[in-house]
From TrEMBL:
This is XRE family transcriptional regulator. Residues 137-150 have a biased composition (Low complexity). Residues 132-157 are annotated as: Disordered. It comes from the Bacteria.
Length: 157
């Protein structure tokens, strides 16, 4: 059937004498349509994003460079157990919102909470805070291991 040149096939309103010609025309049309779709998608990606209205909240992304830098500064401090909950208490937010800000990165806080986050980071990065955290973690480790190894009898002699 494919080699029979006398066979007549119809496609798109055109009459073909050869079924291979009809198939090749169909493939060419599909390739052309896919190229047009790819070109439209590329033009959409290259186009400037629409200008947002005045007062509309920004969303985290490539165009929020300062927020991204702050997130990078906060993330190491959130690795400690309980740090997300502590920051959430300071921001007066649920812990899940802190997760949205710094882990999922799909939300941004308002200006007041952003300033609170900045002060929290500064407190976390000062040498006194580092020394205090180190002392607390050392006390926890030594307190838990010495308490179980040697019980305190209360006498020094």
């Amino acid at each position: 059937m494919g080699d029979n040149i006398d066979s007549v096939g119809q496609g798109g309103g055109m009459v073909y004498r050869d079924s291979r010609a009809w198939l090749m025309d169909l493939v060419a049309d599909l390739v052309w349509l896919s190229m047009e779709a790819a070109a439209r998608a590329a033009r959409r990606r290259m186009a400037k994003p629409p200008r947002r209205g005045v007062g509309i909240t920004l969303r985290p992304g490539d165009e929020t460079g300062l927020w991204n830098a702050l997130v990078e500064r906060v993330q190491p401090h959130l690795r400690r157990p309980g740090a997300q909950a502590i920051l959430a208490r300071e921001l007066e937010l649920p812990r899940q919102r802190v997760h949205d800000y710094f882990i999922r990165r799909n939300r941004m806080p308002d200006a007041e909470r952003t300033l609170r986050i900045l002060t929290w980071v500064i407190k976390q990065e000062t040498p006194e805070a580092f020394a205090e955290q180190l002392a607390q973690s050392g006390a926890r480790r030594s307190g838990s291991s010495t308490a179980s190894a040697t019980p305190d009898t209360g006498s020094s002699a």
